[in-house]
Amino acid sequence: MVSERGEVRLASIGLGWWGNMLAAAAASSAPVAACFARSDEAREAFGAKHGADPVDRLEDIWNDPSIDGVLIATPHGVRTALIEQAAAAGKHVFVEKPLALTVAEAEASVAAAARAGIVLQVGHNKRRQTGNRRLKEAVVAGELGQVQHIETNISGPLVFKPDLPEWRTLPEDMPAGGMTPLGVHMIDTIHYLGGGVKKVYAMSKQVAGKLAVDDVTAALLELRSGPLAYLCTLMASGPVNTVGVYGTEANAWTEQDGTVYLTQKRGEPARTTHQVEPIDTLADELAEFVSCIENGAAPETGAPEALAVVEVLEAIIESSRSGREVSLS
Question: Tens digit of pLDDT for each residue in 98-123?
Fold first, then answer.
């Protein structure tokens, strides 16, 4: 359902760096008409930057009939409650990844959205990178032969950021180190390319030791379709975003945030580089969110995809703590 104004209107909740990124990306599809954060200063700055009305009570957003949907970019510990409130108010929800830290919390959000009949979309945008779309095409078309293994690495110098939010430095909010800010992207990408996960074995520890959270995390996954997969995420390295798929006929990779696509057929001595045209993945996913509000369609990364990611995330956290393999239901 769209507001009586005839256009989708959004509100932003959580107005930090990423909240600003989402609002800017949404602007070409729908105006962000209102904003809320606990800080008066954050509300005023965000409102001035994006032309949004700063409100000092969440109820003002829930009770505003002209607001159709919300963009939630808060710490993940409060997302379940916000999604439940939004659903009760009939507001569609775009929420940053991960949907939750536990399957139980994720299921509560999904159930609330289903009862209310609202759109629930989660920001797993990396699968939208042009290189990853090309990888998917190669897998589906059989260009690589039988897929044997998927290898991913998403890392960055998070521990060196001077403006890192306090909650990003707390072990209880950052289980398994870089998994929540970075690694969950690759869980979704592995699902996108290879399907569901059957078993998980993970290790996570402090190596650089700049913060009180783990900064190196690695997981070995067995996929239900047969192949194995590997996921690595570091918080104290230079920026990395690579995906590789290894098949019986050829291997293919994406690098540099999906802007470079490389292939190597069996028997070829070196890789061939193919430039691909990048897109704004944030604008792309938010355009889909607005479209789903307008036409009632299901988003590409909706409840089923988000729940599958949280299930693997929870298993990685459990395995890294217990030192044991974890089987998924």
Answer: 999 999 999 999 999 999 999 999 99
CATH number reported for the structural domain that contains residue 81 in this entry = 3.40.50.720
Instruction: Report which of 73, 67, 83, 58 is spatially closest to residue 31, judged by C-alpha positions.
Output: 67
Give the sign of the dihedral formed by CA 314, CA 318, CA 320, CA 324: negative
Whether pLDDT at 242 is above 80: yes
**Which domain does 208 fall in, by range?**
126-279+311-327
Helix axes 281-295, 17-26, angle to 10 degrees: 60
DSSP structure string for 271-317: -EEEE-----HHHHHHHHHHHHHHH-PPPTTSHHHHHHHHHHHHHHH
pLDDT-derived band of residue 277, with 50, 70 and 90 as boundaries?
Answer: very high
Q: What share of the chain is helix, strand, coil (3-state, %, to 5)?
A: 40, 25, 35
pLDDT more than 70, % of the chain: 98
> Would residue 3 count as lying in a domain?
no
**Do residue 210 and residue 82 come from a single domain?**
no
* Other CB atoms within 10 Å distance of the CB of residue 267: 7
So what's the pLDDT on residue 275? 85
Domain identity same for 117 and 139 = no
